[in-house]
Design a protein that fits this description.
Belongs to the guanylate kinase family. InterPro entries: GK/Ca_channel_bsu (IPR008145), Guanylate_kin-like_dom (IPR008144), Guanylate_kinase (IPR017665), Guanylate_kinase_CS (IPR020590), P-loop_NTPase (IPR027417). It catalyses: GMP + ATP = GDP + ADP. It comes from Caldimicrobium thiodismutans. The strands form two sheets. Strands 2-7-1-8-9 form a five-stranded parallel sheet, with helices on both faces. The protein has seven helices and nine strands. The chain has helices spanning about 15-20, 55-60, 80-90, 100-110, 125-135, 140-155, 170-185; strands at about 5-10, 30, 35, 50, 65-70, 75-80, 95, 115-120, 160-165. It is globular and about 50 Å long. It is of the alpha/beta class. Helix 5 (about 125-135) packs antiparallel against helix 6. It has a single domain (about 5-185), classed as 3-Layer(aba) Sandwich (Rossmann fold).
Length: about 190
């Protein structure tokens, strides 16, 4: 069976993490990104993100340890190269949950070996409601995230697939269907992961 590199992106609050948490740990390896932002309530270091200082992030950057990285909302986010090795050594699909610029950079780097999936909210009103329910952002940050979300949604057509997360169970089924379909592509049998 061909192992996939799955690049998952979409606006903050679209439900990416919620969908990904429902997938099997036996089949999927979830890349843990590095970030310089503070943890949200319930987030665990080493599981949700590696929470590090800006100085530590800059050092990793200097050593060339990132596949991709970006600064968003005054915080740095990056995916370490070591995550690919961890996934494939365990025989699992690699899932990279990254923002849209990181997704574009990863897709460019891996080409057809990677599958890009954009997860979108049904509309911006639902997204705003989800962001407010988090209770982690001040009004200015919510407005910032909504403005960015409009821009990110405008880039959805550059992804291989689009999932509108208006029903969680359907979104999970669609995600798993994409994985199944991609494994059936004949040319994947001739590409190593």
């Amino acid at each position: 069976m061909s192992r996939l590199i799955l690049i998952v992106s979409g606006p903050s609050g679209a439900g990416k993490s919620t969908i990904l948490r429902k997938l099997s740990l036996e089949e999927f390896y979830f890349s843990v990104s590095y970030t310089t932002r503070l943890p949200r309530p319930g987030e665990v270091d080493g599981k949700d993100y590696y929470f590090i200082t800006k100085e530590a992030f800059q050092e990793m950057l200097k050593r060339g340890e990132f596949l991709e990285w970006i600064e968003v909302h005054s915080h740095f986010y990056g995916t370490a190269k070591s995550e690919i090795e961890k996934a494939f050594s365990q025989g699992k699909h690699l899932v990279l949950d990254v923002e849209v610029i990181g997704a574009a950079n990863l897709k460019k780097r891996f080409g057809p070996k990677a599958v890009s999936i954009f997860i979108a909210p049904p509309n911006l009103e639902v997204l705003e409601e989800r962001l407010r329910k988090r209770g982690t952002e001040v009004e200015e940050k919510i407005r910032e995230r909504l403005n960015r979300a409009s821009w990110e949604i405008s880039l959805a057509s550059f992804f291989d697939y689009l999932i509108i997360n208006d029903d969680l169970e359907r979104a999970i089924t669609q995600f798993l269907s994409i994985v199944e379909a991609e494994q059936c592509r004949p040319w994947r049998k001739f590409l190593s992961p």
